[in-house]
Amino acid sequence: MSDQRLKDIVPFVASVEEGSFTAAAERLHLTGSAVSKSVARLEARLGSRLLERTTRRLEVTDAGNAYYQTCIRILEELAEAESVLAAHRTIPSGRLRLAVPNTYGRLGVMPLLIPFCQQHPEIDLSLTFSDRFVDLFDEGIDVAVRIGQTVDLPASLGCRQIGREKMVFCAAPDYLQRAGTPQNEAALMQHRAILYERVDGSTKPWLFTTADGHPEWRSVPYRMALGDVDAQVQALCAGLGVGQMPTWLVHEHVQRGKLQVIMPQCQPHGLALTLVWPRRKQLLPKVDALLMALGALEISPPLAAPALDQ
After folding, report:
1. Among 175, 250, 176, 188, which Cα is nearest to 220's?
2. CA–CA separation, 21 vs 53, rounded Å?
3. SS in 3 state form for 79-102?
4. 140 in the same domain as 193
5. pLDDT at 124
6. Which of 39, 79, 161, 166 could bridge 300 with an S-S bond, Cβ 3.0-4.6 Å?
């Protein structure tokens, strides 16, 4: 990109954001004529009208809006590149955008973010809780925490696997006192299952490990199917049946005695916990500091499995 092309982008962006050449000129410490000529030069080079001039205000055309979005990304990347070159700074600062899954974000990530923010007062954290797929580039995310497979990631994304879920079968102690505690898979299948219901209406099967160590998903009949993991935990604690849950989700309930681990010898590994970030941002002090803090995330806390009195 030539110097002149870059020089013309800045007045154009300022004109769009300020709504007039005069206000853009004041912002850039230029004359209104200089800003107007710069935008006209840009339009002539592109062969497209970017701004409609009115007596009161500039109006952005469809082509101008599309070009403006591109210019914003270019200027942001230039600013980030300058920050990378100054990565020797010891104080992470600036806006930091993090995307996390809903429930794991609350239970697993937030306990680490509180001391992180206390340690780095110069960082302004923006946190998005969502179970949907988040596009880091389209949504301006610096780091994402994901539970699930991260195959076929583009080369522009960095990825670090923190660990894998450990799945456990569990139920409320009073349910097991009424229905009995299963000691093998055949007995387990006779109990009332509480399953997770996917968006498409299907239910998530239970995960087992075969004799040769391979994962095996098995569909099971169920008493209740819920499309929310927190609701699953509530149903289990209420004694409505048996469920297979990740340890990070039921750890606290097991410690408090609200849930009991069943068949502790059967704890297969579930989904992977990964950190994902744009590679061009990984040398930014704020991103590097966050990645180091999130490296302490725990996805499979150990669970005690005290025996029930029969």
Report:
1. 188
2. 10
3. HHHHHHHCCCCCCCCEEEEEEECH
4. no
5. 93
6. 166
Q: Check if the beta carbon of residue 130 is closer than 8 Å to that of residue 174.
A: no
Query: Measured between alpha carbons, how far is 76 from 53 in angstroms, rounded to an integer?
Result: 27
Do 276 and 265 lie in a common domain? no
CB 105 within 8 A of CB 129: yes
The fraction of the chain above a pLDDT of 70, given in percent, is 93
Domain CATH code at residue 245: 3.40.190.10
The token pair that represents 153 in the structure block: 């990631």
The predicted model scores a pTM of 0.67
Please tell me the distance from the alpha carbon of residue 260 to that of residue 237, in angstroms, as a whole number.
9
DSSP reduced 3-state for 104: helix
155 and 277 together in one domain = yes
Q: Are 279 and 217 in a shared domain? A: no
* Dist CA 212 CA 215 (whole Å): 9
Helix (H) or strand (E) holding 243: strand 243-246
Q: Which two tokens stand for residue 261?
A: 């681990």
Which segments of the chain have a pLDDT < 70?
Answer: 1-5, 83-90, 304-310
- What tokens were used for 51? 């701004």
Instruction: HSE, CB side, 13 Å, CA atoms: give it for residue 174.
Output: 7
pLDDT of amino acid 310: 33
Structure tokens at 172: 């409320």
CB within 8 Å of 287: residues ≥ 6 apart = 96, 142, 143, 277, 281
**Do 245 and 170 share a domain, yes or no?**
yes
List the domain range (segments joined by +) for residue 197. Answer: 165-269
Quote the pLDDT of residue 92.
85
Q: What is the DSSP letter of 70?
A: H
Nearest to 146 by CA among 251, 272, 270, 245: 272
Segment holding 16, helix H or strand E: helix 3-18
* pLDDT at res. 308: 39
